[in-house]
Amino acid sequence: MPFKALNLSDSVLRGVQAAGYTDPTPIQLRAIPVVLGGGDLIASAQTGTGKTAAFALPILSKLGAHARGQNARVLVLEPTRELAAQVETAFRDFARFTDIRPVAIFGGVGYGFQRSELKRGVDIIVATPGRLMDYLKEGTISLRDISVLVLDEVDRMLDMGFLPVVKDIISRCPKNRQTLFFSATVPPEIAAVASFSLRNPTRVEVGVNRSVNKSVNHAIYPVSLEQKFDLLLALLEKTDFDSVLVFSRTKHGADKIARRLKAVNHSVAVLHANRSQNQRIEALAGFKSGKYEVMVATDIAARGIDVAGISHVINYDVPEKPEDYVHRIGRTGRAQAVGDAFMIVTPENAGDVRDIERFIGQKIPELRLEGFEYKAFAPRAPEPMASKPHGSLPGTIRHQGGFRRFKSRR
Ligand code: AMP
User: Fold this and answer.
1) Per-residue DSSP letter, 202
2) Tens of pLDDT along 178-196?
3) What residues have CB less than 8 Å from 373, skipping those under 6 apart?
4) pLDDT-derived band of residue 214, with 50, 70 and 90 as boundaries?
5) Which of 14, 148, 237, 384 has its CA 20 to 30 Å from the CA of residue 188?
6) pLDDT tens for residues 195-211?
7) Does pTM surpass 0.85?
8) Is 354 helix (H, G, I), strand (E, B) or coil?
9) The pLDDT of residue 390 is above 50
């Protein structure tokens, strides 16, 4: 079914066309009619499924083509600054043939620009809870005209401790609003928040919660703890990367990996919650433009970031929760591109790896990097892959090319 059949407004259809989308994704097909119909919604969908457009397009259709220029009519809450910026950009893109004004409100930057934007009048506020609360308390923003409230990535928002402020924000919105929840998972805490903030919600689930993108090749690289970093370096050297996202469990760990990679002349960006907003913007922009070929990130910071052309994800640390593996891997292999996902695993990670495999319902092949001097190698498979190290996976795991240097891409 094409977008045309979904009853979206003409200006939004033009926006969709300009964005280059031809057919709606499953979450869009199922959520758009519910949102257009005015009903409340709980949608389980992770990033990468097209969920932003699933709410942005019908919301824009309902707002019409003209700005009202006073209090916002739509509020979208996002857990991180990066997501707030990204979702606001998506609204702006889809709304390019209207004069609707979206504004992003998030912390870590000065108040001046946001205040002046708010003064000009807004239609859609895309905000992180903390900074929004600042404006609500001082009376710069009023939520009394909100007709649609979207809580995006609700599970992550609650994980980050935003529940009290989110509840406060919900209670400041008019009762007769429409409320939409988007969450990768819907654990009981979310059901509890949903029960006081949604009315007869329609549940839409796209069956990807546990599934990893089919176009991604996975591999585990077992190594001893002391050789973890050396193996990362060897992987970067022996693999034909375009751009690679390296995941660390901790902020401190991310900084350390970045420092060590820089010391051997890799161009590296770092993304985690302790970095200033300007540093984060610079890191993302630099990674997008190809200035940095490696980005080291923590789970929360990387949640939802959408950078075209991430060819590889390397899990330097095994993720803490199995669902984080799916989120991490969702960063590569987007929009039909093929991506590779490597996980560096030490013997103490065996239990975590089993949990991940159970969660995604597939066994991840174990590989040994040819040419790397292992001090110890303890594969769990009975026959190590040494005889055919990389031929066992289809697709693009290539270890012959070497790292494509930054200068060669300019
Ligand atoms: P999201 O899940 O909203 O983060 O979207 C993931 C990616 O899919 C983004 O790069 C979107 O631009 C892209 N996308 C969303 N909907 C479509 C569509 N119908 N056709 C093609 N690409 C899409």
Assistant:
1) E
2) 999 998 877 777 888 888 8
3) none
4) low
5) 148
6) 889 999 999 887 544 55
7) no
8) helix
9) no
Integer Cα distance of 208 and 310 in angstroms? 20
pLDDT digits (tens, 9 = 90+) for 51-90: 999 999 999 999 998 887 689 999 999 999 999 999 999 9
What does the DSSP assignment read for 255-323?
HHHHHHHHHTT--EEEE-TTS-HHHHHHHHHHHHHTS-SEEEE-HHHHTT---TT--EEEESS--SSHH
Taking the alpha carbons at both ends of the chain, their separation in whole angstroms is: 40
Q: What is the mean pLDDT of the chain?
A: 85
Within 8 A by CB and 6+ apart from 204, the residues are 27, 30, 31, 34, 41, 42, 43, 44, 45
Q: Where do the structural domains in the chain lie, given as residue ranges?
A: 3-206, 216-358
Q: What percent of the chain has pLDDT over 70?
A: 85
- Residues having CB closer than 6 A to ligand 1 are 21, 24-25, 28, 47-53, 306, 334-335
- Characterize the bridge pairing of strands 244-247 and 268-271: unpaired
Torsion of CA 387, 389, 391, 397, to 10 degrees: -170
**CB-CB contact of 261 with 269 (8 Å):** no
Same fold flag, 3-206 and 216-358: yes
3-state secondary structure of 366: strand
The answer to whether residues 311 and 241 touch, using CB atoms and an 8 Å cutoff, is: yes
Cα of 47 vs centre of ligand 1, distance in Å, is 9
The CATH class given to the 3-206 domain equals: alpha beta
Tell me the CA–centroid distance for residue 48 and ligand 1, in Å. Answer: 6
Protein residue with least CA distance to atom 14, ligand 1: 50
DSSP-based three-state secondary structure for 364:
coil
Atom of ligand 1 nearest to the CA of 49: 2
What is the architecture, at CATH level 2, of domain 216-358?
3-Layer(aba) Sandwich (3.40)
Residue 13 pLDDT: 97
